[in-house]
Amino acid sequence: MKNYKTITTGKHADFYKEKFYSIQTNIQFLLKKQNIRNILITSSNMGEGKSLTSANTALAFSDRGYKVLLIDADLHRPSLKKYFGRRGMTGLMDYFDGMPLVDAVDHLEDTRVDLLMTGVLPPNPTEWLDSDEMTQLLKEAQAMYDLVIIDAPPLLPITDSRLLSAKCDAVLFVALNKKTKKGEVIQAKKYLEMAEANVIGTILNGVETTNKNREGYYYK
Fold first, then answer.
1. pLDDT per position as a tens digit, 74-99
2. Mean pLDDT throughout 55-84?
């Protein structure tokens, strides 16, 4: 996965930003219409771009004036700490252990985004994500932030996101071009339907672009 520096200052930074601004604009129309305060972002399997999408969607909303809480809820293979190059050890598990939310988050400089990393990974992640403490976190965060974005585990290998999606206002699904199989998307959709999740859209990641079509809708 590309890192924060690559996306924001690399050769095609303006291109990446514009694509995520397009995603942000599409989501923004739904926020007031459906009274959405938190969005879970997931995929069928790992390596399909859900963390990249979570991070940059949060930053796009921040650029539009939203105060955002970005939660790394992948308690198996967290990615956001590495993506942003953070060194802190506190996070979600510390909140579950009683730490105030304001102390558990890590503010991203020059943004309106607070990052809640995982903290020390627990032996029973599914139990925590389906807990009353997680429900309380979403309720508390709603009072403190304009929007909460949750980078969740993939749907097919484990049950975490299926359980967590039932607690969230909306779900955004990420698929990877030429990797995510049709059957995997169908199965992921079934799991979300079983959880009665509110799927508001799908992002196709990994579409190849050239200099000629770099202004197209998809992002690389």
1. 999 999 999 999 988 899 999 999 99
2. 95
What type of residue sits at position 13?
A
Predicted confidence (pLDDT) per residue in 179-202, tens digit:
999 999 999 999 999 999 999 999
Structural tokens at position 34: 């459906």
Number of Cβ within 10 Å of residue 72's Cβ equals 24
* All structural domains of the chain with their residue ranges: 4-205
Q: Say if residue 132 is exposed, middle or buried (CB neighbours under 10 Å; 0-12, 13-18, 19+).
A: exposed
Gap between the Cα atoms of 189 and 204, Å rounded: 15
Dihedral over Cα of 9, 13, 16, 20: its sign: positive
Q: Which fold does the domain 4-205 belong to in CATH?
A: Rossmann fold (3.40.50)
What secondary structure letter does DSSP report for 220? -
- Pairing type for strands 106-107 and 113-116 reads antiparallel
Q: How far is CA 192 from CA 23, 103, 128, 155, in A?
A: 21, 33, 19, 9
H runs (alpha helix) in the chain: 4-9, 13-34, 50-63, 80-84, 92-96, 101-104, 125-129, 132-144, 160-165, 182-194
pTM metric for this prediction: 0.90
